[in-house]
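We now fix the convention by which a protein and its fold are recorded. The integers have meaning only within a learned vocabulary of local backbone shapes. A complete example follows; check for yourself that the lines match position by position.
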Amino acid sequence: MVSSPVASRIDAVSRFAREHGWHLMFQDRLGSGHPFDWVGDGVVATIRDDRRQLAYLRHLASLGIPIVDMTCDRPDFPCARVSCNHVEAGRLAAGHFLERNYRSLVFFTIDWGNGRERFWRGFSSAGSPGKWVFSAECPNARWNDWGAVSNWLERKFASAPKPLGALTYSQAESVLLLSAARRLGIRVPEDLGIVSGGEDKALLECQPVPITAVDMDMGRGAYEAAELLQRLMDGEAAPARAVEFPPRRIIARRSTDATVASDKLVRAAIELFASGLKSGVNVESAARALGVSRNTLNRRISAELGRTASAELQRQRLMMAKRLLADPKNKVEYVARMAGFSSASHLGSALRADCGLTPMSFRM
């Protein structure tokens, strides 16, 4: 049996099942407390704070049925675990914001728990971000009262510095944050950058401003969880500690498609870089267009962003390439040309140096 609504997890466990002759039952919510007419040998689950689910899983464990959890939300529940390293995911999100020069950061979540605490630990390693926890500040409100959450966010936004980079724990929280910001006239990404702490392409791409996400490689985690469950069903002892794997990458979308700069010359240079990639803009031509010397432009960009003008231009090329690679219809040669690389191999070398992936592996 598998309990998980995430498509990549379902696909991965289904693949393992086909390869190993499993018969599957999927159950997103337990409803009355147990899956209808299910008798089986093992469970891959996402264990949450659900009283009925916990009671049923305890019952299965008492019968000797092995369970593998794909989350880290309930470390107190005794079972095997395979999950992404949430601390590293938080660090990855912080680095993404800092690369874009967002200096004021906040972690927003509806509730608190072990997974969120681990995200926070990684995110806060990059500085001193704020922490917005709805349940802590509004303990008498229901977590799914979106009107109450939206009104609370309005109060938080009123006193928050801008531009602000916000990491959310879940995809739904990132959509809620975007909706509240748009209702209040807060520009995304110019005034507010948003990163979701989990990827859901169907949800995050279908927003008025598509939302950047940490790719937690849930498909890999689900496949490894299924492999572990098979070993447990074959009689192997459960690992003494949770199995963790690193987050795969940041999937950059428009919600962080900005580089924050207070220097007007630097902002103008960034806009020139971004708009002139296809035509082969370089630092020299940008400096001429802005009426300054190359040295002046380089000095001002370095002072504002902490990197050279050439490094910022290369970063803009890679940002464009990554956005285009996200669409499988775009051939690598087309992506290279549109992003200002001389060839597909030039793009491949730059991408490998940046994140260790080839163009084809990046889009997988």
Notes: The two ends are 27 Å apart (CA to CA). The chain has a mean pLDDT of 90. The chain has three domains: 2-84+218-247, 86-215+251-256, 264-362. Residues 86-215+251-256 form a domain with the Rossmann fold fold (CATH 3.40.50.2300).
